[in-house]
UniProtKB/TrEMBL annotation:
Name this protein carries in UniProt: oligo-1,6-glucosidase
InterPro entries attached to this UniProt entry: GH (IPR017853), GH13_cat_dom (IPR006047), Glyco_hydro_b (IPR013780), O16G_dom_2 (IPR045857), SusG-like_C (IPR056300)
Annotated organism of origin: Robertmurraya beringensis
Cited PANTHER family: ALPHA-AMYLASE FAMILY MEMBER (PTHR10357), OLIGO-1,6-GLUCOSIDASE 1 (PTHR10357:SF184)
Catalysed reaction equations from the record: Hydrolysis of (1->6)-alpha-D-glucosidic linkages in some oligosaccharides produced from starch and glycogen by alpha-amylase, and in isomaltose
Amino acid sequence: MDQSWWKESVVYQIYPRSFKDSNGDGVGDLQGIVEKLDYLKELGVDIIWLSPVYKSPNDDNGYDVSDYQDIMDEFGTMADWEHLIQEMHDREMKLMMDLVVNHSSDEHHWFLEAKKSKDNPYRNYYIWRKGKDGKEPTNWESFFSGSAWEYDETTDEYFLHLFSKKQPDLNWENAKLRKEVYDMMNWWIDKGVDGFRMDVINLISKAGYQDARNMEGKKYASGAEYFFNGPKIHEYLQEMNKEVLSRGVVTVGETPGVDVEQAKLYTGSDRNELNMVFQFEHMDLDSGPGGKWDLRPLKLKDLRDNFTKWQKGLEGEGWNSLYLNNHDQPRMVSRFGNDGKYRVESAKMLATFLHTLQGTPYIYQGEEIGMTNVKFASIEEYKDIETLNMYKEKVNENNEDEAKVMESIYVKGRDNARTPVQWNASEHAGFTTGTPWIAVNPNYKEVNVEQAVADPDSIFHYYKKLIKLRKENEVIVYGAYDVLLDDHEQIYAYTRTLKKEKLLVILNFTDHRPEFKLPEDMICRDVEVLISNYEQPEEPDVTSIKLRPYEAVVYKYR
Ligand code: ISL
Ligand code: CA
């Protein structure tokens, strides 16, 4: 058993734009975060992952960086950032910065130089190709719709942008670029940063530039096989580790399209690459072959099989990061639980799930009070570039059914996660005294931090308890995971075992009342309830239990 502080930690993700506005301009900021540090400390957070706060024209809310060593004007100044990290360290919280180096902004001075001429010293910091028969160099599709290539008139070449055209991809083949990145990272570590979350880090090595296999009738195709986990990815990460990460910072790589075997290569303790990765397989279980907007219902069996695969796969070899939502995904309670009648029960059930698996749990802002998805009446109210580009392509260009497209946005759109954190029942949920950059979810009068902190039975207090249990029970962090009832359509149950310690976790993922029957060989009368989202009997009998809607219960064997 390989123990590490970051395995025992709980991470809280802040999307600064939507967290807390301190000066009434409608945009969350660094000073707003400082105001809420005591709240996060009370929750039990060890590490804060801060989505990008660097200088940015905000085409993709900060994921388009125009200066890696300066702070976005709307969020404050470098002095504000220094104040924030000081206040965090005073409270023994660590800061994980977002590192966005697959691409920069097209307003970064490197790119402004690069596009001046073919022989500019910065040209090679980006990826330029000639057109093919008057068209783009390859048929690759951008993650944000349309071609992944943009034509540049000055030099009569195209540049690659896997995301928006204001996010040109950096050329990692260029050793000078790599050194600039490492120097920049070291500069932040010198300023006190404790770790990095690395944006789409498994996309930085490209395998070549050829047409991807195309599905019938589509103009562009996913070029994933040319840039997911490319040929030099491990070489680059090992180099980065040697130059920067070995100084002792915590790392998590965002790695879409990574499977268990690849994750072992990224996170294996003998590999000198990363500590953890965010894998995406469980985020794809409710999508059809048409991709994320192609909605299909989630089956509990698929979810369980997937988590079991990752839990067993990385056991003793790598380390899982545990998440059910973030700033790119719909709200967890709306997606995997029930955001109506059983909002509180199901949010607690899902929290029990995440916080009793092997791995490091990540909480996304507002999750701890059970914030839900939002339905804005019109596309005008949406802000996310991915959503807006998709809508334009499907509705305006391809004449697809508007209502159906809006429905997919309600279920999967990224703005579900980006409405302001609901602090109290006052106007704009206490997020701002001005006009928020994106509208507040109308349920803020009922769902807000003030209410949750005051109510001892709230989701907030339940999270607090789960986090505390993790600190007190090694088995929660390090215990081996074993699944029970692997075919059940409503119940997800598993055990966690560490030496003589054993936990039994029973979760009802539905509003039905299924009966849980414990396998014979697991029967033990001497159990204690560690936590549950319902009242439990003084002397529990775990051999057979009729579960209530979204009931979660964790037993400890004595
Ligand atoms: O958001 C997604 C799901 O629809 C993904 O396609 C997402 O774009 C992908 O996971 C990469 O995400 C990261 O890089 C993007 C940025 O827009 C996301 O916010 C970030 O998390 C480009 O920097
Ligand atoms: Ca502000």
